[in-house]
Amino acid sequence: MSTFSHRAAGESGGDHLTQSLTYEVFITAVTLLTLAMTVVFFLPITSELVRQVLAVVDIVVIVPTFLFDFVRTYIYSQRKMRYLLTWGWLDFLGSFPGAPLLRLLRLGRILVAWRRLRAATPEETRQAARQQLGQSSFLIAFFLGVLVLIVGSVAIVTVEAASPSANILTGEDAVWWAFVTVATVGYGDFYPVTNSGRLIAIGIMIAGIGIFSILTGYLATSFQTRRREEEENLLALRREVAELRERVEGLLRGAEKR
Question: Which residue, among 31, 190, 164, has the nearest Cα to 106 in the 3D structure?
Answer without folding.
Answer: 31
